Amino acid sequence: MHPISRRDVLRRGMTGFALTTFGASWLWTPGAFAEELTRTPAQTEGPFYPVHLPLDTDNDLLILNDAMTPAVGEVTHLTGRILDARGEPIRNAVVEIWQCDHQGAYLHEGSANRENRDKNFQGFGRFLTGSTGEYYFRTIKPVPYPGRTPHIHFAVKVKGRDKFTTQCYIKGHPGNERDGIWRSVRDPQARESITVDFTPIPDSKIGELAAKFDLVMGFTPEA
Length: 223
Description:
By secondary structure, the protein is α/β, with parallel strands linked by helices. Helix content is about 10%, strand content about 20%. Strands 1, 4, 8, 9 and 10 form a five-stranded mixed β-sheet that branches. Strands 3-2-5-6-7 form a five-stranded mixed β-sheet. A hairpin with an 8-residue loop joins strand 8 and strand 9. It starts with 5 loop residues before the first helix and ends in a 7-residue tail after the last strand.
C-alpha cells in the first residue's frame, strides 16, 4: 500500500478513503446495538492545548502546508465516528486532536523538550464530520513523555453544546497502569472504550498503522 497523500484524501473524500483502505468494517447500521454503547468518559484537556494554532490545521499532521519533509514517527491512520447516545452519527461536529511529537514535545511554549521539537510535525489537527459522523487523521503513533503514558488528546465541538474533551490510549502499553489519568477511569468498560489497538496495515511498505476510536457522546440531538 502506498502512503495516502493529503491531495488523495481531499479528492477521494473520507468515505472513499476509509472503504478502500480499511475495508467494509466501516459499514454499519446507525443506531444498531445502541443499548451496548458505552459513553466515552470525559478527560482533562491538559496544559498543552496550543496557545497559538499552527497556520496549517488540517487532518494531516505529518506534512506542514506544502513542505516536502514529513514528521518523524510511526505513521498512523486514525479514524472513528462521533455518535450520539443512541448510536446515531453526529454530523458537522468539529473534531480536534493534539499530541506530542516523537521527541515528547508539544506545540506549546510550556512543553518540556520544546527546543528539540520536530518542526515538521503539525501537532494539532481538525476534521469536520460528515453525514456518517466519521473523522480521519494522518498522524504518528503517540509516544510517552515524563509522567504520562502515550496518548492523543481529543476535543469534540457540537453547536449548542459544551466542548467535550477526552484522551485516546494504546491498548496493552505498559505505561497505562502507571498513568493516573488513565487509571482515573474506574469503570472497566469505559476505560476499554478509550484504549485502542494500533494495528499494522497489511502490505504497507513503510510500516503504517491503523487505529479506530469511536466517541459516544452523552446526548442526542433532540435532547
